[in-house]
Amino acid sequence: MAYYTTNNPSSTPPPKPLRILLLHGYTQNPTLFRAKTGFLQKALTKTFPPNKYTLHLSYPAGPHKLAPADIPGFRAEELDVSAAE
User: Fold this and answer.
1) CA–CA gap between residue 53 and residue 23 (Å, rounded)
2) Nearest to 66 by CA among 35, 24, 33
3) In whole angstroms, how far apart are CA 51 and each of 19, 23, 40?
4) Cβ contacts of 58 within 8 Å, gap of 6 or more
5) Measuring CA to CA, how many Å separate 2 from each of 9, 16, 79?
6) Less crowded by CB within 10 Å, the N or C end of the chain?
7) Is 53 in a helix, a strand, or coil?
């Protein structure tokens, strides 16, 4: 662990880490979500300058599979092919 003294005004403390967790929705993946939120990273970089903060955006992949019944507006009868015969 590094210690910094305040006696020397030219020594600057290291940038503070700024970690942000971004979770995509059930119809997206991390790659698509990262592309769609590029403007957010640009705005955060302007707001939190790199000389004071180290910005780290995390885009984890969701491990859960979506069941058809979880989709809003899903109707099982539309998928039942045997009923149409």
Assistant:
1) 22
2) 24
3) 15, 27, 19
4) 19, 20, 21, 22
5) 17, 13, 62
6) N
7) strand
Q: Say what the pTM is.
A: 0.56
In whole angstroms, what is the distance from residue 35 CA to residue 24 CA?
A: 11
On whether the CB atoms of residues 8 and 2 are closer than 8 A, the answer is no
Distances (CA, A) of 11 to 1, 7, 26, 72, 74: 16, 9, 47, 56, 61
Tell me: the pLDDT tens digits for 68-78?
Answer: 777 788 887 77
Question: With contact defined as beta carbons under 8 Å apart, do 34 and 59 qualify?
Answer: yes
CA–CA distance, 65 with 85 (Å, rounded to integer): 30
Q: Token pair for residue 27? A: 């119809």
